[in-house]
Each structure stands twice: as structure tokens, then as C-alpha cells.
Records
---
Amino acid sequence: MCSQDGYDISRLQPCDHEEADTRTFLHAGDMVRAGFSDIIIRTVDTDVVVLAVAFFHEIKCNHLWLAFETGNHFKYIPAHCLA
């Protein structure tokens, strides 16, 4: 979305998040403000799973899914159910 011509990224600035883990949820919240209600985040990091459950209510989306992969294992985790 952010790479589309004319997309307003002013809501993302200034951003002082040093870690990509937390910055991911800043972008997820921005997608909800842009009109999307279901979000999927692909990750291999368990920290992102924990953060998704913690931030689900702040993001205010309907569904927050994590496409989680470790080694040869892949699954979708419904963070909205865990929250």
C-alpha cells in the first residue's frame, strides 16, 4: 500500500520504532485506518506472535492472522482468537 502513488504516509511519521517487530504493527494499524479490516502478517519470529496478541485490540481490526513458519512447518495463527 505504501508504495502506491498518492498514498498518504503522514500517519506513519515520525516513527521512532527501532525494531521491525513493533513497526509491523504500526503498518497494520495504518492499513485498518485505510479501510482494511482483516490483516495477515507473515513471520518466522515468535516475538511477533506475542506482540500480535498484545496489540490486537489497539489495532482495531476484525481479524489478525499470522502466517507463521518454522523450518518445514507452516500454519495460520488466529491472533484475534488468542487475544
---
Amino acid sequence: MAHSPVTSTAARRYAEAVFEIAQRDGTVEQWLNQLDVAAQSVSDASAVRRLEDPSVPFEQRHEAFRGLFKGDMLEPLNNLMGIVLRRRMLQIVPGIAREYRRLYNRQAGIVEATATSAATLEPDEVAALRQRLETMTNKKIELSLAVDPALLGGIQVRMGDLLLDGSVRGRLERLREQITSGTFTH
């Protein structure tokens, strides 16, 4: 699902506010986990429709959302979800969780990377790739995986603005560019 700039901006603002609260309260890790749960719980469109149904009293909808946490929800998160529910903006929750994780990672010195391969990587390949990236950056890497058969083979890794392209498709495109421009390196 595409995110509008307004939704992204709002998610960032909410995430920055709750990150400050979490730092103040010493609950940074709890927020991280609970925002992930909240984001997961609103990933189902039918659940969102039920939770945002104006024919159901707000307190009932809020209580239903709270029930997803089995009584373990941080009170400020409960308040945030109440605001989001009242405004019928549950679609923003995954963005808040993503932005919060970005703030958390930046503070913890963790670099986010996405590895895209032509086929699913084996667990030992993922571990080796993570180790190599951590050695290369001298930072802890949070690695997301994606599969794109159009790569033909190999792997692409994106870390922020940096793209490491070791894919067969990337090599073929570079070769085509060299042939077209007549610039060969020996």
C-alpha cells in the first residue's frame, strides 16, 4: 500500500513524540515491540473496518483494540491508539511503527539494509551476508529480505542511499552500457 506524504509526515510526527516519551520513561524497547504488535493488528483491512466502524461506540472499539495486547499495553500507547482510533486513522499505525524503528535504529547505531535476491536466500547465506555487511560498515545491520526473480541471479543490497549491485541483471546492464558507450576498462 502506498503512503501519502501527509500520512508519512503524520506517522513521523507521532513516532518522534512517542520516541521522546519512551526515552523519558525508559520504555524504548517495550514501545518497539508493542508498536510492532499494533502495526500487525491493523494489517488486516477487515479488522480496521471493524475497529473504525462509527456504528460501534468508541469505547467498545478502543477496548477491542486493547484486548489485542492481553492487558500488557503501555498506558501512553493505549492513549495514542485512542487518538488514532478516534480520528479513524488506523492506517497510519504501520507507518508510526516503521518511523519509530528508524529512530530506534539510528540511536542504537543500527544500519537498516534490504537485500534483494533472485531466489530466497538460505539462513546460512543470510547470516554470511549480514556478517559481511557488518564488517563493511562496522555497525550492526538490521537486514530485510526481498525476492525479485528479475535480478536473474546474485544480490542487490540497499543501505540508505547506497546500492550495492551484485546481481546478474546489474552486471548485464553495466556491460550493455559499456558496449553502447564504447568505454571498456581492461
---
Amino acid sequence: MDEAGLVRAEGRSGPSNPMRVGFGGALAAVCEAGRSAMYQAHLTTTDISAVCAGLAGAAQPESQRKMKKLLHEEFPTQTLQVCTDVDLKLEATGEGRAIVLNVGTGTFAVGRDLDGQVIRVGGHGPLLGDEGSAYDIGRRAMIAALRASDRGEADSPLAGRILRELHAADWEDLQLRVYRMPDDVFPKIFPVVTAAADEGDSEAQVLLQHAAGELSGLVVDLMERLRLTEEKFLLVKSGGMVGRSPYFDKLLDQRLRMAAPKVEFGSLVVTAAQAAARLALRHLLEPAEEGA
């Protein structure tokens, strides 16, 4: 993005959550995307004045400091800023009262009131939170199937479908895969559950009903803290779970409207990457504005 806010080029790379791929992996992904964008715009590192990296898994100050130190090696003379993917999505809503509900492998909600106060709820990771996430739905589906198996019951249609779709020989095989890498199993069960729910499977629908309740609860908690209960505000749903299932999308919207009757559903006005560039530009200009 240039000084006027015009996007000159965009780059893309792999995962960049330092809590999942490590700080070295996150740095490599960020730099790969950055180099791709610079190459397309016919620029080099010396042409860049400011960099903002918005990363999932960078909520803790220590994580941000470590990531910023690593980025400094790649961009030693640039103004650097490290924030979270949450910050980017809220920035991407524009201005005014807004809540972003992110529903993907993890879940969180972040909101802003009319005074600009920003509060985040959820997003504590699979061990301490992420209720209603694709990870959580997959985990709950597998727990239910294992309990049924322990009782000597035959696999339900949903359980059998999970084994087939994940190419598992049996539940012991799938358990071993979970122990080795749960991130590679539980989120993959989510589309199996949604497909079954769309076809009328009651077991799958119950799992999604529970998830929708958890997600609307995040929004309610945030509304109360931001004092938006009686106010109109923009609500943006984002993440990989959105648009995957007509049943789940309709269900979630119903729960959210019940929780927030004055909500206005909308979408992000720019991409997360563009929001990062906007934050970088603003961060670059702020010192000059303060000294003016």
C-alpha cells in the first residue's frame, strides 16, 4: 500500500500462527508473502517504510516482542508493528460500533464502542476455550462416537461417515492420529458434521445447535461489556465456518438475532491484509501528526 492508501500488490503464503507453526515458521510465512507483494510491485525492502504483521497467536505481549525482534532482522530500518488477526478484522469493519465474530478452527469476538474502546472475548485456544469452533465441533463429535463405541453400540450414520471421510480404519486408528496431531483431525470433522446436518442428520444438527449457542454467548458477553445491548451495531461474521452449511448459517443467524435484536449484519470492507497495511500506514504517520 502506498502513502495514499492505494493497494499496489498483494502476496500470499502459508500458515503464520507462531503458536502452531513456531516463530521461525511464522516469520518465514510473513516474509514470503511480503517478498511476493514487493516483487509484483517492483519494489525492494529499502522502498518500504512501515510493516504491520497481524497474526493469530500473537495476543501475548511476549509473543509480540519476539515476533517484532525477528521481523527487525528482515526489515531493520522500517517502522514495525505486530498485532493480532483480531485487530485486523476489527480495523477492516470501518468505523463506529461493531463486533466481529470469528468462527473457524478457533473462535473469538472483538468489538468497538462509539468511543473507540476495543474489547476481545474468547480466543483462548483449544485447551482453554474456542467453544463452538470447528476444532470444538470435531472434538465433540468424536467424543460422542467413542462413548457410543464404549457402550457397544453400532456406529451411528454420522460416526460411520466420519470414519469414511477421514479414511480411518477404525476409532483406534483415528485416536492415534488425534494423539499425534489433533489440529489435523478435529477441524476436518467439521465439514463432515455440516454435510450431515444439511441432509437432516439429527445428531449432527444437535452438535451445531450447541456450537451456535456458544458463539452467540460470546457476542452477548461482548455486548454487555461494551454496553451495546440496547444499541444498533454492525456484526460481521468471518472465518472458515461461514458459508459452509446452509443449516448452520441459518441457525447461527437466528441465535444472534435472538441475542441482539438490533444487530445489523455486514461484511468486512477491506481484507485483513489491507487492514494490516492501513494500520502500518497510520502507525507511520502518527508521530508526524503528534509533532505537527
